[in-house]
TrEMBL record:
Function: Associates with the EF-Tu.GDP complex and induces the exchange of GDP to GTP. It remains bound to the aminoacyl-tRNA.EF-Tu.GTP complex up to the GTP hydrolysis stage on the ribosome.
Gene: EFTS
Boundaries of every Translation elongation factor EFTs/EF1B dimerisation domain copy: 135-357
Protein's UniProt name: Elongation factor Ts, mitochondrial
Keywords: Elongation factor, Mitochondrion, Protein biosynthesis, Transit peptide
Superkingdom, natural source: Eukaryota
Family: Belongs to the EF-Ts family.
InterPro entries registered for this protein in UniProt: EF-Ts_dimer_sf, Transl_elong_EFTs/EF1B, Transl_elong_EFTs/EF1B_dimer, Transl_elong_Ts_CS, UBA-like_sf
Organism: Theobroma cacao (Cacao)
Amino acid sequence: MAYLRNAKRPLEILLHNTRLSSCGGHGFSTWATKGTSFAHSSDTKVSKTAYFCWVSRRLSSQASSSAEQISLIKQLRERTSAPIKDVKASLVDCNWDIEAAQKDLRKRGKVLAMKKSSRTASEGVLALAQNEGKAAIVELNCETDFVARNEIFEYLALALAKQALLVENSSQQVPGVFSFGPECLEDLKFNLEHPKISGETTVQNAVTEVAAMMGENVKLRRGFVMSSFPNGVVSAYLHRSPQPGLGRIAGILSLEVESGISQLNALQKVGSELAMHIVATKPLFLAKEFVTSDALNNEREILRSQAESTGKSQMAIEKMVEGRLRKYFEEVVLMEQKYFLNDSLSIKTILDNLSKEEISMCLPLYRPVHSCNDYGGIFL
């Protein structure tokens, strides 16, 4: 034990000298018989200086390299809006070549987007585009409200709405009105001019690329196009709109008058207010004659059951049912509803005052509060 204790100190000195010698010096040490003290030559001091200078240069080089890498990560992140972990992984794989990493990142993103395509996309926006005689609305879905507010996502939605104006459908059940699915736009080519997503591409590729950027399932769900009549207008209203052309609830309708350009301005004003009214009241039918027999029979059964619980005569029950049906029509039939800006007038009265010729209306596309993955909407 005594021998080992005495041997520790010389061993430490030898190791120290070896480390200094590896730096290119010629240091050596001498120590007394007990090994408790030693002296360094002038060469050893030089070796120490060389060693610390080498360490300093190495740390400085590492710091510079780290700063450059951080800068590259930041630049690629700004270019693509991809998650930081994916940005760094692409740069590492491409030996910190930012151009190659950007291409690799797009490939990675498309693969991830395909993997996430089965996930529920219950959030999103409605985008509206209009020209002189037509209006188009598209629904673009994502997984979270955070992505729904992203500027790239919103830009894509508006760009898709503009493309929807170009869609034509020869098999229209109602002239000038039709809805369509994503397959009508997927192969359509268009140009994007956003700093982070630009160039000519197809609708399907654009949606996939944005999905890769956002890291979520993004999908175009459906669209709706309405054209005006020769002497008419198309009006629309967007509710909860973060910017012009976007919203969570939309109302769109078309009105026509018999003749007279002078009435078009008044018609446009009323049309805008009616679109707002539709969003506020969410009617289910345009007029009483369009109420389906199933809906009417179900409501009659409910009202009859309520009336019979009062114990009154059959004649009184029938009168109660008919009276409550009138109230039901005022709630779900647009033409019977009270105008939300003036409840002394019905919608039918307002349109009669405009000497209408023909009316074509679309009830609002809206997102029910408790719906997990659907937007409601009815066309009449």
